[in-house]
Design brief:
mainly beta, about 150 residues
């Protein structure tokens, strides 16, 4: 694992992220804002080729991703994010929004279910359902007579 010596500083109107990134690591580098954090991420690929003799070659390659995240406590304008290099030093500027306004509350409209009378096949009579009775009285919910 490589230490990028990254640091996030807060100023009145912006956040500034600085990190040491060697030139060969810059190709797969990305800086983004996700929720309330700034994420510095990237990937690297390396491959080795070894000639073992006539007609014999051995190849090895590896792919690696890395990331580091930094919490922020103020909303930012991620679309205005800028990044520049000063030697091996990456400098990312992320402007703060002028005021802190939480996202407006949007009530979700819930549609109520509609009750519809079920339709039965025509061969089933729609008359009243008759209760089954026994000589001891009506049947209980458990199927036994009401006397227990």
């Amino acid at each position: 694992m490589q230490d990028m010596d990254a640091e996030l500083q807060e100023y009145d109107h912006e956040f500034v992220l600085t990190a040491t990134i060697p030139e060969h690591e810059r190709k797969g580098l990305a800086v983004s804002v996700r929720g309330n954090e700034v994420v510095l991420s990237g990937n690297r690929r390396s491959s080795e080729k070894l000639d073992l003799g006539p007609g014999r070659v051995q190849n090895t390659s590896s792919f690696q991703t890395f990331s580091e995240s930094f919490p922020i406590n103020w909303p930012v304008d991620a679309r205005s994010l800028t990044r520049e290099f000063d030697g091996d030093q990456l400098i990312v500027r992320i402007p703060k929004k002028k005021t802190y306004e939480p996202a407006p509350y949007k009530a979700k409209r819930v549609e109520r279910a509609k009750l519809e009378r079920p339709t039965f096949p025509e061969n089933i009579p729609l008359g009243a359902v008759k209760k089954k009775t026994t000589p001891d009285g009506p049947l209980g919910s458990n199927g036994n007579s009401g006397n227990g």
